[in-house]
Amino acid sequence: MSDLSIDIKISKVSESKIQSVDFNNLTFGKVFTDHMFVCNFVDGAWQTPEIKPYQPLTIDPSARVFHYGQAVFEGMKAFKDADDQIWLFRPEDNFNRINKSSHRMAIPEFPKAYFFEGLTQLLRMESDWIQKGKGNSLYIRPFVIATEPAISASPSNSYKFMIICSPAQSYYAGEVKVLFAEQFSRAADGGVGYAKAAGNYGAQFYPTSLAHAKGYQQIIWTDANTHEYLEEAGTMNIFFRVGDTLLTAPTSDRILDGITRKSVIQLAEDNGITVEVRRVSVAEIKEAAKNGSLKEIFGAGTAAVINPIAGFEHAGDAFELPKLENSYASFFKEKLMNIQYNLSEDPHGWRYGV
Ligand code: COI
């Protein structure tokens, strides 16, 4: 890919809207920066990419994305250190994953040089939108949509690859309690659960709204065949601390190979915390909650970072989790953020300077 000449066409806004943004009161994903990256796939090739003012798109109503959900996305974050240097966290993994998702959805893969050059130029242009200080970041949303105006149910012959950016603080405001899924499923064997396919997320909205009505913010999805094993939370991978051991489900074609998930596993290993990557049953977690050995449940994801779970319910049994002084959740959050904000060593080379 490196032999591609990367000529990005750039047009800038005449005036930034940054002055109108209250960076201390951000709702996740509501405010977008001044510019966006767009690259069209037509006639069998990705065309010259553009960075231009953030604006609505004009897309034919018959475009396949609207009818068949042929769309994938990624979630990444940019951080700024005290010297105004911008950092990404393991961006190569996002690049590989969007192409893995695209492959599964019959979308042509995006060239690596375009991805990194587009991201770099866009982030440098939007640097003022990346606020310093732990907890502040710029959430980056690369995505691909099928744009061919045709409603036969087959892969599109045209696509848009785009990157939009949104200043972010926390994803979940307040306590997160979860329901363990008993009836609905997120993903099945041989399906698209491992991909960041748009429909994986849309399909969770209805069951999650039922959970909301019962006072739970999220569902922890269980395996579709038996509902006996805990898999992921949809916006996050999920970890259980039983005694001092960390448990998490192995990735599979049903579970997203989360970048925060694998970073937590690595950090646990680096810090002498035993991690068991294996199937985790609903029964063992309920039993551990009853006998007091379940100390923590937390989610791990790009948007959510590390999110402690305050309680859960399954089959009418509700459990509260203890509030720990020295939780693994806060330990991993601190370790991760110190790497992300260039406040500590980066032994695994996860930081990527922009
Ligand atoms: C992310 O953590 O970046 C995700 O993709 C989850 C999202 C649906 C907010």
UniProtKB/TrEMBL annotation:
Cofactor annotation: pyridoxal 5'-phosphate
A biological process from GO: L-valine biosynthetic process
Coiled coil: none
Domain of life: Bacteria
Signal peptide stretch: none
Xref: InterPro entries: Aminotrans_IV (IPR001544), Aminotrans_IV_CS (IPR018300), Aminotransferase-like (IPR036038), B_amino_transII (IPR005786), BCAT-like_C (IPR043132), BCAT-like_N (IPR043131), BCAT_family (IPR033939)
Molecular function (Gene Ontology), one example: L-leucine-2-oxoglutarate transaminase activity
Annotated pathway: Amino-acid biosynthesis; L-isoleucine biosynthesis; L-isoleucine from 2-oxobutanoate: step 4/4; Amino-acid biosynthesis; L-leucine biosynthesis; L-leucine from 3-methyl-2-oxobutanoate: step 4/4; Amino-acid biosynthesis; L-valine biosynthesis; L-valine from pyruvate: step 4/4
EC numbers on record: 2.6.1.42
Keywords: Amino-acid biosynthesis, Aminotransferase, Branched-chain amino acid biosynthesis, Pyridoxal phosphate, Transferase
Catalytic reaction list: L-isoleucine + 2-oxoglutarate = (S)-3-methyl-2-oxopentanoate + L-glutamate; L-leucine + 2-oxoglutarate = 4-methyl-2-oxopentanoate + L-glutamate; L-valine + 2-oxoglutarate = 3-methyl-2-oxobutanoate + L-glutamate
Modified-residue entries (N6-(pyridoxal phosphate)lysine), positions: 196
A Pfam family assignment: Aminotran_4
Classification via SUPFAM superfamilies: D-aminoacid aminotransferase-like PLP-dependent enzymes
Function of the molecule: Acts on leucine, isoleucine and valine.
UniProt xrefs under NCBIfam families: ilvE_II, PRK13357.1
Similarity comment: Belongs to the class-IV pyridoxal-phosphate-dependent aminotransferase family.
Protein name per its UniProtKB record: Branched-chain-amino-acid aminotransferase
